[in-house]
Design a protein that fits this description.
25% helix, 2 domains, alpha/beta
Length: 335
């Protein structure tokens, strides 16, 4: 048995308090990670408040984890104590279904979330299956790498799925924790990048992030000016929008991809899709293999989220900072 020191909530919406729990003996394919940094994602807030109806209490958030391996199961051959690794939303999958065997572990029907039925990374230690502990490139910035394991791969995966080309003109809706990373990726990909933002005061900063143009999403004239011009749009927001207004900015055969957890049904007009052979899709995070590819791409192009750091002892202050919409643009806890 191993004692873990963590921060947990006893019920929905409660503050996080110091919490200890015992890990059982290590399974043969599992490993334990000593947490160095853990990002805070909006999903942690959603889970804390049980917005998705699947939170179990006491609840330890945290699924953007970087640290070092401190214990390995007897059947773990490629990782050793002291290796630097990262862990994201998923902590285990079945390893025998068609999805796992085909490399799409994140689509496994039995995939286990790091903070769904398990305790997460607002702690000194976290446990996972070896397949989801991703080795970190040698030159990666540990302080900034945590958010790449959720927010980063969430916006990187759609670029691959949609087959985005360097010659494409693309759009990103919502320039926050997810959107600002999407701008960085797409700019390094070689695309012309249009950022949709409702906050004109952020224009200069958005351009520095990699956008080539900023469109006021509340101005119908600005939306009309780019009608029929975009090959790909990535929506990172979790609110209901005027979907048709954005779909009309797509060029024929354009693709609208959603990664924001919009809780209401999306009212998509059929004729807008039919007449332009346009498509609407979505995705969760990405596979372990694609996460490795993303990390290599980040190191090669020096792509990291813009972060604000808090000590783990100030976790409630950090969560409140995010919930109040003040985060610029990802919050990271130092453990």
């Amino acid at each position: 048995m191993y004692t873990v020191n963590a921060y947990a909530a006893s019920d929905a919406g409660k503050s996080l308090e110091p919490f200890q729990y015992e890990l059982p003996e290590l399974g043969p394919e599992d490993l334990d990670i000593k947490v160095h940094y853990c990002g805070i994602c909006h999903s942690d807030l959603s889970m804390l408040n049980n917005e998705w109806g699947m939170t179990q209490y006491p609840f330890v958030p945290g699924h953007e984890i970087v640290g070092e391996v401190v214990r390995v199961g007897k059947e773990v051959a490629h990782l050793a104590v002291g290796d630097k690794v990262g862990l994201g939303w998923n902590a285990a999958s079945c390893m025998h279904c068609n999805q796992c065997m085909g490399g799409d572990h994140h689509l496994c029907g039995e995939v286990q979330g790091t903070i769904v039925g398990r305790h997460g990374g607002f702690a000194d230690t976290v446990r996972c299956h070896w397949s989801w502990a991703i080795s970190l490139p040698e030159k990666v910035d540990l302080q900034k790498a945590g958010p790449l394991f959720c927010g980063g791969i969430t916006v990187f995966n759609p670029i691959i799925l949609a087959g985005v080309q360097p010659t494409d003109k693309v759009g990103v809706i919502g320039i926050g924790g997810l959107g600002h990373m999407a701008l960085k990726f797409l700019n390094a990909w070689g695309c012309e990048v249009v950022a949709f933002s409702s906050n004109p005061a952020k224009k200069e900063q958005i351009l520095k992030m990699g956008a080539t143009r900023v469109v006021n999403s509340r101005d119908p004239e600005e939306l009309e000016a780019i009608q029929g011009s975009l090959d790909f749009i990535l929506n990172t927001t979790n609110v209901t929008l005027d979907w048709n207004a954005y779909l009309t900015t797509l060029a024929p055969k354009g693709r609208f991809h959603n990664v924001g957890a919009v809780l209401e049904p999306m009212a998509i007009p059929a004729f807008t899709l039919l007449m332009g052979e346009k498509s609407v899709g979505g995705s969760p995070l990405g596979s372990p293999a694609l996460t490795r590819t993303m990390l290599d791409f980040c190191v090669r192009h020096d792509i990291y989220p813009i972060i604000e750091e808090f000590p783990l002892s100030e976790v409630n202050k950090a969560m409140e900072h995010l919930e109040d919409g003040k985060a610029r643009y990802r919050v990271v806890l130092k453990v």
